[in-house]
Structures
1.
Amino acid sequence: MIVATAVCPHPPLLLRELTGVQDVAADLRGVCESAVSVLLSTPGLDRIVVVGGADTSRGEVSGRVPTRIYADAARRGPEAEGAGRESRPPTAEPLPLSLGIARRLLDSVAPDTPVEMVTVAWDASAEEVERVARAVAGRAERVGLLVMGDGGARWGVREPGHLDAASVDVDEVVRHALADGDTGALTALDPEEAADQMVAGRAALQVMASAVVLGGTSVGSELLYADAPFGVTYFVAVWSCASC
Amino acid sequence: MLRLRGREYGPDTTLVMAIVNRTRDSFYDNGATWDDAPAFERVRAVVAEGADIIDIGGVKAGPGEEVDAEEEKRRTVDFVAAIRSEFPDLVISVDTWRASVGRAVCEAGADLLNDAWGGHDPELAEVAAEFGVGLVCTHTGGLAPRTGPLRPSYDDVVRDAIDGTVALAERAVSLGVDPRSVLIDPAHDFNKNTWHSLELTRRLDEMTDTGWPVLVALSNKDFVGETLDLPVGERLTGTLAATAVCAWHGAQVYRVHEVTPTRQVLDMVSAIRGVTPPARTIRGLA
């Protein structure tokens, strides 16, 4: 059963070593670390599971933070700040970005915290989402879930996906759903529309919604961050089981 | 490792040395900082632009008005003292070949003697040792101070520049100059034709491979002007191109008229070389 969740975005620029001298995402990273701290401090957790989007749905994913596929900066500079604490061997396969960012956040907050990592396909159907959600929720009696998912990327003409006003609509639905603990609104997100608006977190957020619903309890929710400072919408939220 | 005014700089740190002429006739600025007030303003401006070193010169490098040692001191010593007072941490270099001038400016607070005429006065290195200051060892190909090149020839100009400057550097160290404070300078244009200076630029890595910190003085020089067929005043772009190549090859100190564009080129090349990170990277990472 899911007793607590945290939602974080997974842009590469959360990796400190990728943004050069300036730590452009310091505020966002701070909020994400707060959310992860809240999740990890949930009393009596039996297991922590991370779910994030990837090309395919898989369980038991492992690997290293994928810095080097974004920049050779991994060899130098401020990287030591975060990467030095990572326990993955450098020869390991790179994690999917979503899980790599989760790994870094977890290592920043509580190094060497044991977690299980799973992916859900970006284009997962409702059935596939449900299957992943059941697997996640059934991992232990009290599961803490870290959900890695981004909002839309089509807010403006300079943004990655160029302007599409519908992006605002999808992001608004997600924002309200995360703020209100509204699992139904997340489950109702249309995969095609979300994909069109480049909402990378659709499937992962739906896994969270379905997994929480399986527990059958009410949700306390808090939206910590919702903004698009660099053209992609980021959400940070924490949910907790009100009666667990 | 380079050490100036007690500070140490790793081999990947580049330093901008801003030229401040106390002359009436220097080729680029035509006496713009001959008077005290504009000279002080020039120092304040280049410091604000991020210059790491200023290089004060009292004698035009090329042929021109006769300036004896006493006049050279009149032009530089009090100015060094005043700059030292206003900027206690600034590295002050003085461009002189005369030991007597070197001694006077060191007493006034200079940190580096830029011996642009390559050991013409052998006592200058002894002054550097005596005062514990740095020394720039320059390749002039045997040219006497303030004379221009007439049909200079070299079997291998780069080899000659390396052998000449390294010999001067080793001599300076043997006299007691801190080896961390000795730089070598191939001296573009000094007893060189444009082909020679272009080759020195192209093969500057052979100089940096010696391990001695390399200073280059490229700013608006004739080899840039002849290469692009441009007069003084229109050579900044060419200067910056040469600066980029020298930076790629690992030169550490850049003696320049224009500080801000030089600093930008050095920072850009440093990032391309991968020795410093870019300032702010967002593109494609959101």
Note: The longest strand of chain A covers residues 219-227.
2.
Amino acid sequence: MSSSDQSSPAHLPDPDDYKGYREPMLGVMKRFGVTVWSEVVARTTRGDFQGLVLPRSETSDAEHMVLKLVSGYNIGIRHDTIESMEAVGYRKAQYKIPEEPFPVDPDKPRVMLLGTGGTIASRLDYRTGAVIPAFSPGELYGSVPELADICNLETEKLFGVFSENMGAHEYQVLARRVGQAIADGYDGVVIGHGTDTMAHTAAALSFMVQDPPVPIVMVGSQRSSDRPSSDAARNLIAATQAAARGPIAEVMVCMFGPTSDRYDLLHRGTRVRKMHSSYRSTFRTLGGIPLAMVQEDGAMEVLEPNVRPRRSDRQARVQVAFEDKVTILYYYPNMQPDVIDALVSCGYEGIVIAGTGLGHVNKKVYPALRRAHEAGVQMYMTLQTLWGFVQMHVYETGREILELGVVPLANMLPEVAYIKLGWALGLHPGDPGKVRELMTTTIAGEMTEGEPFDGYLVLQGAVPEARELIGKVWW
Amino acid sequence: MPRHRPKASPPAPIDLNPRTDPPLDFPVRALGELTPRDYEILGFMCGLEVHQQLDTRGKLFCRCPAGVRTTRVDAEVLRHMRPTLSELGEYDGTALMEFRTRKEIVYRLDRRTVCTYEIDDTPPFPIDEEAIRAALEIATLYGLDRVSELQVMRKQYLDGSIPTGFQRTAMVALAGVLPFPDSELGPDRVLRIRQLTLEEDSCREVSDVGHRIVFRTDRLGMPLTETVTEPDLLTPRDVAAGGSLLAWVARASGRVRRGPGAARQDVNVSIAGSRRVEIKGVCQHKVLPRLVHIEAYRHLELLRIRAELLRRGVTAEQLVLPQLDPPWASPLAIDARTLVGDRDGPPIQGARERGDMIAAVRLPGFAGILAHRTQPSPHGDLRFDHELAERLRVIACLTARPFMAHTDEASSPVHESTWRELRRALRATADDAVVVVWGPWADVATAVEEIVGRGREALVGVPSETRQAHPDGTTGFERILPGPERMYPDTDTPPWPVPDAWLGEIDASQPERPWERERRYVEELGLGARAARVLVERGLYELFDALAPSTVVGRRRLASALECRLLAWWRESGTRTLPESERLRPLVLAIDEGKLRPEAYDEVFDALLRADDAQAGRVLVEQWCARSPEPSLAAALDRLVAAAAERRFSSPDARMRWALGQAMPTVLGHLAPAVVRERLLAVLA
């Protein structure tokens, strides 16, 4: 038994007694001696209702009280319909997740799972809908038992933050911990992460933990793990496979390939981007093809010929630093120069420009760019098109911008350039030459020498052959 | 697949029949041979869950069109469902079963009917307010208490019928009472309604073979109401009547969709000593009585089996497999591949050639039980082995029949000497039954666990299941009945407060409820009680009200013609369409204005149904009205006098009856029979 109901008609006052309730509903509850977790019978102008009072979401209105009926349904009762209410009981639940010992097999690889805050696996509180994260090996074994077939799993929760709140501090703590896990002899590292900024963290790790001997695999889910249709377990299993047994020793993101439950893709940490707000197959490799496929049965097929293989040594260059005063400037027509001046006066040391086309901005901002350059701000050019290379020599505009001190970054993604610039400035404060050298040198595949012909494939307005393909299960 | 076997949660107390004393010696009788008192002795209880699609333009949580039925396939998506643990760390029984089936779920998409919401790649759009309005109107007609604020919940379904793995559903109203008079059960009876919810419809199943189930998504997401009654239905006939009542009331709102599959009911059945079993997706009320009658007997037979097993001293402890993977090599199950041989029949030879796993399972104390009858069928009665076979088909996904044989069969593909060897290897006595099952390795492993598990459930009596209806009135296993813990709040949708203005508008413009209409027909329009009931029950009231005859005789004749002549025309023509009111109106007017006598009603009515169009009908009625009776009658009388002289009659009355029968058609609609009789008396005297 992992959860228990406390039944006591007269319970001690609790700060959560009216959790989420405000006036006018709050006053009605107090008038009738009703708190959260009371079993009540409410007589209203719309009939009698009986159920358990649940906490109210802070973002819902203040007019209604939430009742859970015996059928499992919740309903709302408006304060001014209530004629009388009687508390006939009190049931508060406490939750604990049952654990089953994770089986240990000395012949299996050792994998370290690091948690940053996203829920990888979870149990559901059926009354409030709250998701209770499962994270310890025992908890994970209870919900994703397949993991025990793959490896001996150890876990460590580093932070409890949503992915949009990951930042410089978290990157550095995480990178050091990954470096430690490599030194400690783990055969692979899995990092659970929310999907919104997973690509940013992947980029940060790619620069902070260079040339690792084992796979470092980031994983998350697009459908939360409390849903039967979730991609969480499938992704976690595939990521653990890639970390425990995979041949590629790089920082990677492991997520659904198609929207169907078919296979996961491993994306290089510096070339991956979240491309859809809600699709399962949201992550795509840009400027190339994914590194590998992980099939449902765990079989891995390497797609990209140019990967760093797993090694038996324990060497990795861990360089941890980050300068906060770096930004991305997303160019738009009619941009005014004062935007750039403001950044300079606020003390920004680095600006990554996401330019149009081959890497352009309008003439109007040239003077501001010159002022920024003269103030020592490092400026780099990337592309809003995401696909393709910066080429500033084709048009005169480009050549002029180059002369203003803006450095082209080939096909580095804007977000990756932002992370790299923050890292490089943090590593070499006061040494612009060193920063520029780092920025223009490829460390972890963030710039490539060319683009494969089959990376940028979009089947819009598809030819009959493509339609036939979509007609069968695949996407 | 988990190596440890998670526990399933126990059934909810609400599913148990309140009586615990099964009438084990109750005789076997066919439907129609039992009285309401007999069903009372059985402890028969039944409730309905009626799913009624709403006639909205769009779906409930996205803006795709509702009501488009299609078989076009532009694309397919493949998914699996994985159970999530409840707060108790236990899997819901249904969830566990669906996980054991390890199904590949395929969704077929027609781009005209779905967007990324249906395939669970986009969160819900705001709920469709037209559907909420319709649900509130129906709830008001049912006399239910309406909630102040709708809260969307997720109800888990792991069979794949909804790609998210849950149905979005919201409670709209609770606790109502409908008048439900019955000739046998009393004039003041009521049908209590527990609740009405607004939910999204599921996919249509295309096929379910082995480990692959295929769905169409056109219906997915359409708004429907689910109305749940209390278990107030006490006889099979009552169940059909209750279903009809709910349907008529819902239709009175004018908000419901009609046509195939637009209304479907789940029927909950139990008898004394059993627990609730749910028969899913019945589309027609008329099949309900036989279905629930047979199901009641299935419960009784399963309770008889339970009593017999208990008498033999069989216990649940004897029916537990050790935690082995695979489950054979245990006292209850063995690998039988080396024990079968060339002497066994073709199915076994086929299994050997395919390299199937073949396992034998011992059910201690079950000798003869597998041949115990459970359901009567014109195609041969179903026996307890059908309960086993159904679990193997659905959960172990065994498809190539036959996939099992047992010692209670009169003839089996397993040779007598093989049975002897199997019995020896399993240390089975004459009191035990032995089951052999074959198929793919992993499926047979599941099958062995299911055979032992279903055997263990026989000691409980009736397992909580959902079952699917077959055309012959029998049912087959569909799923384990889910528990209440599969419901939790939908965090993707905000609560939706019901505006007071809406409720005011709805209350102020209530359509007539069926029983109110019935009463009006009798008390204000002068129809008989039976005629009034038929008009309402058969959905003929709209046509009747549109024609609105102004005289009592005109109303009675119209009601009678709609009941007898229209239904006869439907049978004859094979159609089910109502004639448009304009086609019948000339007849109604001719009767009301006295241009035609009522004796001609049925004949003209029949002719109007068959007329090419309303225009032709009008001409036809005009011709009828324009007939001049006197010349025809005079000619007829002359003819009759001559003809009567040549015939012999047993009496003067017989002669008069014959003569009236000859004369009336010539003057139908113009002269009263009494007048014709007078004239005949005068000439025949």
Note: The first helix of chain B runs from residue 36 to 42.
